[in-house]
């Protein structure tokens, strides 16, 4: 098997994929800006090759992609700098093609679908994003799909909904986990009683490695749904129950989010994605299951238990929850 490189490796999804590769006894390359950060996160694993890059420098991107067979693209940007997404994707794609990379796996989101036109969304749903963030995410996908169609490189795209799990701070549920573990009040972004789904992050890695190894995966995108349709309210109740405390939380409505957005760049940007709370995208992943067979999906109750067990005593986070970008 050729070299697998995780571009933007230090996030929680990158860790899940690295763990899956480690479990399969496969070497892999981790690519990021900071050698110190990569060393801290992956330095103890002899299977990990640490490579730094400067995504503003084409020569640096090419060097990071040199000798790679499969490039897994996980590169994130601050929520208020989404305009960088297509720019960084174009540079990385051009560098990968120049270096003879065979395949790119892009970990994507529900944003390009826009408002759902059906109760459950499969891959035939139109990609008609009505938000700026959705259009920028679609632009990333279009670059990749055009390169695949041209025969320049093989591409597959995996869409994830919101996620949660041990160490996952950028989740709508994170503040509830931290507050519940301390018996305190959580602050949530509402409404919280609408249908929703979450992926347990440790389940993502095995799915990604199975997808990237399957010859039938390329030339299209795939949905990965959560462990069933639930709601934030139901999960928060279970989080507190498993933590041994009565549920205590307050809910921020769209007006309060806009008000906080006057002082917070992240909350300001979150406003345009609020439709995902009122018109959620619930994904049908039957096509992915038909391709790969059984997909590991940890039941919410088990995922909650494992996430609480991984929490060390710490103050409630002062930042704001991020949606899956």
From TrEMBL:
Positions of transmembrane segments: none
GO cellular component: cytoplasm
SUPFAM superfamilies hit by this protein: NAD(P)-binding Rossmann-fold domains
An MF annotation (GO) of this entry: aldehyde dehydrogenase (NAD+) activity
InterPro entries with a match to the protein in the record: Epimerase_deHydtase, NAD(P)-bd_dom_sf, NAD(P)-dependent_oxidoreduct
Domain NAD-dependent epimerase/dehydratase: 6-225
Top-level division of the source organism's lineage: Bacteria
Pfam families, alphabetized: Epimerase (PF01370)
PANTHER family: NAD(P)-BINDING DOMAIN-CONTAINING PROTEIN-RELATED (PTHR48079:SF6), PROTEIN YEEZ (PTHR48079)
Protein name per its UniProtKB record: NAD-dependent epimerase/dehydratase family protein
The species this protein was found in: Myxococcus xanthus (strain DK1622)
């Amino acid at each position: 098997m050729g070299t697998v490189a995780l571009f933007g490796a230090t996030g929680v999804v990158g860790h899940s994929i690295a763990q899956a590769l480690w479990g399969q006894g496969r070497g892999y390359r981790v690519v990021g800006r900071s050698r110190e950060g990569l060393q801290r996160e992956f330095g103890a694993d002899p299977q990990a090759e640490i490579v730094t890059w400067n995504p503003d420098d084409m020569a640096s991107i090419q060097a990071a992609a040199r000798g790679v067979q499969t490039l897994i693209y996980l590169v994130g940007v601050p929520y208020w700098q989404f305009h960088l997404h297509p720019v960084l994707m174009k540079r990385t794609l051009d560098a990968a093609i120049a270096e003879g990379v065979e395949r790119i796996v892009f970990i994507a989101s529900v944003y390009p679908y826009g408002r759902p036109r059906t109760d459950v969304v499969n891959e035939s749903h139109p990609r008609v994003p009505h938000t700026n963030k959705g259009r920028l995410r679609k632009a990333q996908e279009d670059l990749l799909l055009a390169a695949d169609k041209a025969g320049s490189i093989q591409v597959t795209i995996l869409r994830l909904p919101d996620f949660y799990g041990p160490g996952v701070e950028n989740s709508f549920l994170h503040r509830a986990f931290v507050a519940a573990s301390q018996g305190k009040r959580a602050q949530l972004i509402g409404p919280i009683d609408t249908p929703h789904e979450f992926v347990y992050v440790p389940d993502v890695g095995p799915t990604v490695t199975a997808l990237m190894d399957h010859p039938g995966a390329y030339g299209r995108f795939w949905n990965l749904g959560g462990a069933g349709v639930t709601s934030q309210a139901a999960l928060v109740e279970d989080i507190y129950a498993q933590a041994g405390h009565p549920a205590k939380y307050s809910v921020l409505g769209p007006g309060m989010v806009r008000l906080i957005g006057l002082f917070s760049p992240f909350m300001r940007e979150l406003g345009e994605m609020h439709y995902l709370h009122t018109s959620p995208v619930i994904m049908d992943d039957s096509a992915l299951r038909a391709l790969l067979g059984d997909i590991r999906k940890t039941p919410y109750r088990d995922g909650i238990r494992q996430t609480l067990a991984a929490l060390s005593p710490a103050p409630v986070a002062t930042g704001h929850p991020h949606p899956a970008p």
